[in-house]
């Protein structure tokens, strides 16, 4: 064990992750190119030796990790930043003042339990935050989505709503943003003054869905409640901005820790726009009174957002990389009819993890168990916006060049070849980005004591 720790201490920094260009922006008209980062920063109270025994205790300390987290955020310098597991006190006394110096403004809300606590305890409650570059965006309105309150309001005739969904105090947080003139670039055939009248509304939402795999029904219900609330917020936004008959012009960017694998009901619902009424994740439990209010039919439930995920498993096999679990649980979804991804950050080379015997994150070079995701999007008035990847912050190449189809095919083929040629060991992860080395999701059994500690720590996570 001592040898292992010494290896961690002497491990060199991981190599830069590759930037994968997907397409070029349309320069024939004004465009708004921006980057998005999604990052679960791992709240201090969850970063324990019982949970992450492979990480040195000093590297789990918040005073150490917060510097690495801030360095990552500044290195990638995304225009929109979505954070989860941010402590209330750390938002107001660390993240907000630090990022204001870098030209950001931000909003935050703690989980619902904070309302029941004294001030001395409330400051340690974690929640969600959204930061945006104030030179490019202005805040029109913010919205808090409390899943336990929605469950209570829809609990009539459903004991499962009261007993399974309502006790979980996860939240979603949404910011209605408008682009500023400085966010736009003139097209090749446009007059310099044409961008002055452009203003694109974007609804940015971040969410942290319940963690426990035994409550997959709760995850799916929370996600469906989130979609219903977002529909109401989009309708309200159209009225606020006087977009009569143009509600779809408010573009949607949904980022977060959904604690759900790609084959889950949550991801199927968000990406396909529908989920079967008898999906296994409902666990055949009685949610009929709530579900009948959802759009759809007796056989399936739907939404009309037309979302796509910024990342695929071919390129990003992991967004969570710990000793006992490796898989995709963090996502960036975007309105595919109005946004187009220009590029994204690729995975870290698996060779680094193997050579330095890194078995999981956090790690002295990686401050969270869920390294950030980051990608670049292009927004043009009344056309597709670039997508941003979820759950990890990463730099975006704002001047991606090359034939878009060829770039996309070559980039993905290159990543597939890399994955197939590398066997993913069990090593500790690196700085702010999860190793993406194997396409299959690995789950390792813990000792009973570790499982009990996870249950205790995450009881209200």
Topology:
Layout: H1 2-10, E1 19-21, E2 31-40, H2 57-60, H3 62-76, E3 80-87, H4 88-101, E4 104-110, H5 119-122, E5 126-133, E6 137-146, H6 147-153, H7 159-165, E7 171-179, E8 184-185, E9 201-208, H8 216-240, E10 251-257, H9 265-272, E11 274-276, H10 288-291, E12 300-302, E13 307-309, E14 320-321, E15 325-327, E16 330-335, E17 340-345, H11 350-355, E18 370-379, H12 404-421, E19 442-443, H13 448-457
Parallel strand pairs: 2-3, 9-10
Antiparallel strand pairs: 1-17, 2-8, 2-18, 3-5, 4-5, 6-7, 7-9, 10-16, 11-12, 13-16, 14-15, 15-19, 17-18
Strand percentage lies at 15-25%
Number of distinct beta strands? 19
Helix fraction, binned, reads 25-40%
How many helices does DSSP assign?
Answer: 13
List unreliable stretches of 5+ residues: 1-8, 382-451
The backbone outline, from C-alpha atoms, is globular
* Mean of pLDDT: 80
- The radius of gyration over CA amounts to 21 Å
Largest sheet: 8 strands, mixed
Q: Give the end-to-end Cα distance, rounded to a whole number of Å.
A: 30 Å
Category by helix and strand content: alpha+beta
